[in-house]
Design brief:
This protein has 146 residues and is α+β, with helices and mostly antiparallel strands. It has one domain: Beta-Lactamase (2-Layer Sandwich). The protein has five helices and four strands. A hairpin with a 4-residue loop joins strand 1 and strand 2. Helix 1 crosses helix 5. The longest helix has 18 residues. The model has no long low-confidence stretch (mean pLDDT 93).
Length: 146
Amino acid sequence: MDITAPRSTLTARAVMMLLQGALDHATALGKPVYVAVMDASARLVGLVGSDAAPIICSDVAQHKAYTAVSMRMPTADFKAMLSSVEADEREIFLRHAGHIAADGGFPIIVDGLVVGGIGVSGAGQAEDGACARAAVAALGQEPPGG
């Protein structure tokens, strides 16, 4: 019987690349955003906001990153999943303080392991998703699903 499981998480350099990749894409779009990065245990390891980004977007970005890590799926996929489940099941997910069903969050998956997640908020859901995708691509990774 195995009593251990392999785990891995993001390096500090990878966190910085994710933050910068999302900010660069948001700047190219002319949108102020907050970007949050969580490690494999869904702990905040990076947070940055554009100068004009509304403060509420800080919390939303963190919730998107948390949802991506904890559910192991893009937040857009989580949103779609919720629309296909019964109301009582949906309520269970949405009562949890950290989950949010909105585009803009991706898990970072390396060799089949979720090593972290990114969430972006402030530009509108589609553009938040594009900023998060650009950040994952900056790591040389392919964003899952979404």
